[in-house]
Amino acid sequence: MIKKINHIAIVVPDLNESMRFWVDALGLELDHIENVPEQSVDAAFLPVGESKIELLRPTDDESGVARYLAKRGPGMHHICFEVDDIEASLARLKSLDIPLINEEPITGSGGKRLAFVHPKGTGGVLVELYQLPPKNSPIPEL
Description:
2,3-Dihydroxybiphenyl 1,2-Dioxygenase, domain 1; eight-stranded mixed beta sheet; alpha+beta
């Protein structure tokens, strides 16, 4: 079951330049920036209520995000939904023949489990599903 929109990801060529709009003009606060080597991006997180804006800057010219930026320019990359049970969510999508990029969840930073749904099955939108670890569980090694 979907709990909420966790974040909306936007691809940008320069995080500092992007902060002029998101932080200076809109007044959002930068929570933190993290390097995500498995996706070859630096990600800046800007909370908005219970959700976040995630600004993605590619760190490798061969990454999927870099190819997206080169082909489409800056803009919205994906929407991420937080779910209760990622395995059940993926099983439901598979049963409905929705194409998945990740057939099984992968573990991301902070112990979150995630999977991407292919835009071919969503009307053209890349969708990410997150299941956050229980609050008191140890964070697994990556």
